[in-house]
Amino acid sequence: MFMLLVAGALIGCTLPPLATPTPSPTLSVSPSPTPVPTVEASAAPTPDPTPNAAAMPRFNAGERIRTTLDGLRVRQRPGTTSSVVTGLLPIGSELQVVMGPIFVQGVGWYLVTDADPDEPQFTEGWIAAGFEPDAFLASAGASPGDTPYVASFDQTGSAQYGPVEIGDGDHAIRWIATDPERVRCEFAVLLAAGSADPVPAIRATIGNGVDPGTLQPGSFAALGVRGQVFVTVESDCAWTLVIVRVPEPLEEPSTSASPSPSP
Question: pTM for the full model?
Fold first, then answer.
């Protein structure tokens, strides 16, 4: 036994050392990226189109119109926040157009007079027109031929019209304007008789409200425009105007002095 151990020891001392194996390189495997789910963006809902001035019903000054639904209010000025002149007109109420439309607070408005003998009665005021095909107002037939309205115009911005026949007698221009941006805008009207140079007739600065005005008969007469007249509006406002024949005032009957009683 002892000899075996010695032999083993010798063998271990004389044999060459065993080679240390070179480790194989370890392959690093990157984990596959987790796929991100693709989310398709859903289409935003399309809002209903907002009606604009092109969809307002169109009527001429002096034209007879009627309401097409119950409960319309007549207001002092165009706009849903203006004071109410009279309210809750029944369906079929007849009105006469003075001027318009003008686009205020997203709605078109007409200045009208009462042409219906039934209640409620009023003298004059502004009424909302709505939008086609479901407008609040509709034509009630041909305009009477004896209206005082010579011509009515409306626009947002500058425009030219004519010729308009301005005859003898007194005339006036009624107008109303508003700034669509509710800041400030300019409104000017010039009149030209035939080929003559335009004559300034109206000039106003409009603030953040809805401002009306009137060129009175005396001021109109001082312009000296008669016959075929061209109308030029220089403005960045939304506006409407009407040229009106003003009837002559009725003469008051003369009163003779009563004889003094005899003493």
Answer: 0.76
